[in-house]
Protein 1
Amino acid sequence: MQELNPDDFADTALLPADTTITPTLLKIIRSETFDDFINELTPSDQQWLNRQSFAGKTGQIAWLENGQCIIGSSGEDSLSTLGHLPYQLPEGVYRLTDDASFIALLGWGLGGYRFDRYKLADRMPAKLILPDSANASELVHTIKATNLSRDLINTPAQDMAPSHLQAEVEALAETFAAEVNTTVGDELLDLECGAIHAVGRAAADGPRLMDLTWGDLDHPKITIVGKGVTFDSGGLNMKPSGGMRWMKKDMGGAAIAMGLAYLVMSQGLPIRLRMLIPAAENAVAGNAFRPGDVLDTHKGLTVEIDNTDAEGRLLLCDALSMASSEKPELIVDYATLTGAARGAVGAEIGALFSNDDALAQELMQFGRAEDDAVWPMPLHDDYDYMIKSNIADLVNSAASPYAGAVTAALFLKRFIDDVPWVHFDIMAFNIRKRPGRPEGGEAMALRSVYRYLAQRFGAIDE
Ligand code: BES
Ligand code: MN
Ligand code: ZN
């Protein structure tokens, strides 16, 4: 694991524990101890708190006469405990009077994010000096990993085309001395990736597959895959305006895979990591793939196109087949795959599919602890009939209006051999602002998987 240096704290809204600037003190008051706290105060402070309707609940902030700031906290710690503070407190430097949990401190850091590529932020976030007890490296790098994903998602398709995504993967590889190989355009056909090629070939910036590897060859192999559709117009089955509006985020799966890779590498987890990012813009031109076309895939299965808007599973199927043929210990994929998953669990829960039920349950538990909700969904084989084709091995989209997220996952499953596999169908975007979760791109299901990997494979000895 690399040592942190002071520069690493830039853009995290956190400061190292040994910072010498005089801070404003912050005291967390838990609702259970609120009465005791009140009773110790001077009558005039008591009156002040009354006037500010402070009751020690999460989200409440109040000031005492001595200049100390108090923060309410009810229930278990989460990103909401401190996540509102970076932009609700005045700019400046703060320190907590007591220790705080990892998830609470993380909330502060994640709440400090602003996407400032196209306009300057109107203010700086308030900054928190970390308590001595905090795991600064894990905090800082979790924030950086998340903000990497967020920046990639928030960047419009004009500046985040497949070639830009390639440059981002290469920059990530360079930071951690990882290796990366990219196959572009017609060369995808030599790799037998006919599906990635078909989805992306109509765009001015051609389709490609990035293949990053890192770590000791003797360590357990983990492969992560992310859907990198840099813009999803729907192709010839074009989306209506409302459906197309936010499709710059359709590389959210790729962005989260990259964030996870960043975190794994920054913490030096003893695994052999492989990350596959298929990238394409689903565009329209004379050479676009069409409904009715039949594609050759990496696995050798043929796929009849029912709908060019079901393009994500086409990118993924080639990448998953490549991943699976190497028989890693685990494959994890992330994709903004279906509207149906959003209908099922909403925009704030990651829909999780796995061929290993125990793994799915474990990931859900990690999701709870990390305030990163993921929920198992049925990989119900009996629905396989919905993705049958009369002229090919599979269709890319079911004629049925039901269980769209399930049939998409069943489609992917056909490209996985006997390897433990988890598929996340995620929104990758906060449609409303919450503490620690600004509106816009979000690295959903990143921490659940990281924590699982860190727990299962353990940190490297120092
Ligand atoms: N990228 C979309 C899915 C999506 C839409 C995710 C909105 C999150 C928010 C995907 O490529 C898509 O268009 N899926 C279609 C599949 C259908 C044609 C079978 C969908 O969900 O409507
Ligand atoms: Mn689509
Ligand atoms: Zn898509």
Protein 2
Amino acid sequence: METELLQVESSETSDAQAEALARAAAVLRKGGVVAVPTETVYGLAANALDAPAVEAIFAAKQRPAENPVIVHVADEFMARDCVTEWPATAQALAAAFWPGPLTLVLPKADEIPEIVTAGGATVGVRLPRHPFMQELIRTCRFPLAAPSANLSNHISPTTAAHVQTQLAGRIPLVIDGGAAQVGIESTVIDLTGETIRILRPGMVSAAAIAAVLPEHTVTAGHDEGVLKSPGQLKRHYAPNARLLVMNWVDEADLEQQIAYSRTPHDRVCVLAHTRVVPGTRFGRVSVLPKEPEAYARTLYGELHRCDAEGAELICVEAVPEKPEWNAIADRLSRAGA
Ligand code: TXA
Ligand code: MG
């Protein structure tokens, strides 16, 4: 299958935009899949109300059927149509964070096919911030099921080029809407239980959520033994190379710490944000931003680049143990697991 790429970002005239919208909507209406930009990461979208269309997502990604897919909506009314309950907590969180990187898990409506929810009774819904994605959902007039547009267990794509690397030849259309602004996947929060649970941390932090819901207890993680979100699986979001999260004093110290691995130095990539080493002895040293939002925006791009360059070992400088770094630390620990 040939994969077509359509640009929507830099179109001064809205002709390219209109063309991309029409083409994407046409593929989706026929039950096809399209890779689309969102503010978090690129998604692989299909009509969420059409079970065979959603199956095509799973096939293209080689995704296991037990992993449920997030449903993307264009407004709150559409979100309410996907669920059977819309509690005050959902109302408050939607008002505070939508459109944005927050997915609400609620009891699913009958219209949502089982394949979307992996047979479960709940559905994750999200109103994304990227204008093209919003316009596409409005044009289609149905919600879009969309997991990240990567092969299962690989790093999520934050550019159309990342999507192409993994899915070219497997899907008919990629919409290039520029680099993702947030850069890591949405916060997933379960609103169906007594306590509110963050199933997957993201850039909407637990503290920000707690501030909106002062009457509620917000906890991290799922019930013991119940796999509520495969985003919780230990190894997920992994690059091909081995990844170590570590601290070092200087280049010699770093070199000493990785000596046992016997990785040729030109196959080592270093991702630093405060302890920047000269880089004369390693394949590459990248300097990432010191501020968590900017760091999140660049992280996956750096990991994709390491893979593309054939890195064998990625040394990532440990990030601060502060709440605003929590989601980043989570992704790093999974990538290194
Ligand atoms: O930012 C994002 O969330 C991106 C963009 C495309 O929206 N999507 C994304 O989808 O990351 P995916 O499929 O790669 O990850 C969705 C996560 C998985 O960990 C899945 O298990 C969880 O959300 N999830 C989806 N529906 C759920 C449900 N009903 N209950 C619990 N977890 C759910
Ligand atoms: Mg994913």
